[in-house]
Design brief:
globular, single chain, 8 strands, 8-stranded mixed β-sheet, alpha/beta
Length: 321
């Protein structure tokens, strides 16, 4: 007889869906996932560079549990949707391709679903220590840890501020709330919009720090700011569609007076652009001097400026000005 504690291994009840653009760490992630006896299938959705993804995963070509399917290039939400459509296991674990699962992660997720239907189980994704050499990763990691504290204090906000890189749901729940809405315009806040639809459907969000996957966060300053700008525009759009969001979002801290002033100054076009130039120079100089705290503050300031300016431009365009 198989012990009850090994039920996940016996049943093989989890489909792991990984949208990817072919990150170098993908083979190690897939290998780690396959060591979990609770995994029935691993669906890799190649949303870009499909030939690279196939080459990266050639060592798994004979493993019947691994499937590589093409995405349509429209982002993570549609890739997750594609993965659910071709998988069959009763529990689906969505992993981003830049998170590395801890041993037994899929089985641990599955156990959370056995006693209650309608859960959206969110795992913990701390940024790996090796990646914290970059200021962008440190700023992101600090925001994420603060967000986790807020969600633990206010569990009702879990779905409204969903971070989808380490999330599981039953197939029945996914049929109620698919990863992407047919008319959704969101690509940078697609996971948050998914969470909002889950909340409206009456699903329950659960955040569990024991379900660990290391976030291998790597963004250049240019990439970090471009993403921040796009996210700011999408959250402005989302607030009109989902008034339950309110004015604050998880991870928002009380701002330093300089940041408040910079946010206001960003609305003055030429002055705002000049301020961005000064902030860029400050970040570069702080990095050269090894002044990590000052560099991090500079990145936060730059992010504030680009987000504020992006939202102003979006509103002007929407108003036809």
């Amino acid at each position: 007889m198989v012990p009850q504690g090994n039920a996940a291994s016996r049943l093989g009840e989890v489909a792991v869906v990984i949208p990817t653009i072919g990150r170098p760490t993908l083979p190690a992630t897939v290998a780690s996932v396959l060591e979990d006896g609770g995994v029935e299938e691993v669906v890799i959705v190649a949303d870009a560079r499909a030939e690279v993804v196939h080459a990266q995963l050639s060592e798994f070509a004979d493993d019947p549990r691994v499937r590589i399917v093409p995405g349509d290039g429209w982002g993570a939400a549609r890739a997750r949707q594609r993965g659910t459509q071709v998988s069959t296991a009763p529990i689906v674990l969505f992993l981003d391709d830049d998170v590395f699962p801890s041993p037994g992660l899929a089985s641990a997720h599955a156990r959370r679903h056995r006693d209650q239907e309608g859960l959206v189980v969110i795992g913990y994704m701390p940024v790996g220590e090796a990646y914290l050499r970059a200021a962008t990763a440190r700023v992101y990691a600090d925001d994420y840890l603060f967000t986790c504290e807020q969600l633990e204090e206010e569990p009702d906000r879990i779905l409204n501020d969903l971070w989808a890189g380490n999330v599981s749901m039953s197939r029945a729940s996914i049929e109620r709330v698919p990863p992407v809405a047919a008319t959704s315009p969101y690509q940078r806040r697609e996971d948050q919009e998914f969470g909002l639809r889950c909340a409206r459907a009456g699903l329950t969000g659960v955040f569990d720090r024991s379900l660990i996957a290391e976030h291998q966060f790597e963004r250049s300053l240019r990439q970090f700011l471009a993403t921040a700008s796009e996210q700011a525009v999408e959250i402005a759009q989302m607030r009109a569609q989902y008034p339950e969001l309110g004015d604050q979002e998880a991870g928002t801290r009380p701002e330093h007076r300089l940041v408040v002033w910079a946010r206001q100054a960003a609305g003055i076009r030429l002055f705002g652009l000049a301020l961005r130039g000064v902030a860029y120079a400050g970040v570069f100089l702080a990095a050269r001097l090894g002044a990590r705290r000052l560099e991090d503050h500079g990145v936060v300031l730059l992010r504030t400026l680009v987000q504020r300016q992006a939202v102003i431009a979006f509103r002007r365009h929407s108003d036809g000005q």
